[in-house]
Amino acid sequence: MTLQPEPVPTARLTLLPLAVDHAQEMAGVLGDPSLHRFIGGTPLTPRALRARYERLVVGSPQAGVSWCNWVVRLEDGGPLVGTVQATVDGEAAEIAWIVGTPWQGRGIAVEAVRGLVGWLGAQGVRTLVAHVHPDHAASAAVATAAGLTPTDEWQDGEVRWRLRVPSSPPPVR
To answer: C-alpha distances in angstroms, 15 versus 10, 169, 173?
Structure first.
């Protein structure tokens, strides 16, 4: 299964498929060094972020793997406030999210991730995985609110969270 991201509307947000032209605005959104406390690295310049987005929009070089990336736009035509992403391989996806510092604490990440989970489920994805640093309480709260639960598995110092999405029952005849 190869997926292409589509716009995903939620109550207050629209998840827009990532475009290279989002880099300039997103460099500001992701520019706070504190956002990198748990994920590592440093904020990218607009030019470096543009180069990254150019690679992402081309898609995965691995056959059967889809890179689905969205920017999160606040309300009708509002500013970009974050990103959500999914690397989809068959019926499984690894997901991640980030919301810019000025927009944190408003439920935006929860709403965006729930929108992502719903879209992926509608595409036939049945297992979702996220990796959350054990000290990142806010990301753990987002994962919990989106239906993921922590496992005993670890990867690169992060706890693996998982959600099994039930398949839709067959229609009643």
So the answer is: 8, 27, 35
Q: Which two tokens stand for residue 25?
A: 């605005």
Per-residue pLDDT of 53-79, as tens digits, reads 999 999 999 999 999 999 999 988 899
| Segments in the chain below pLDDT 70 | 1, 168-173
Closest CA to 45 of 28, 21, 58: 28
Q: Is the pTM for the entire model greater than 0.90? A: yes
The CATH number of the structural domain formed by 8-164 is 3.40.630.30
Residue 46 confidence (pLDDT): 96
116, 101 Cβ separation under 8 angstroms: no
Q: Residue 63: what residue type?
A: A
DSSP states of 104-153:
TTSSHHHHHHHHHHHHHHHTT--EEEEEE-TT-HHHHHHHHHTT-EEEEE
Strands, sheet with 92-99, edge to edge from the N-terminal-most edge strand? 8-9, 13-17, 65-74, 80-89, 92-99, 127-132, 158-164, 149-155
Angle of helix 137-145 versus helix 108-122 axis, rounded to 10: 40
- Secondary structure class of 17 (helix, strand, coil): strand
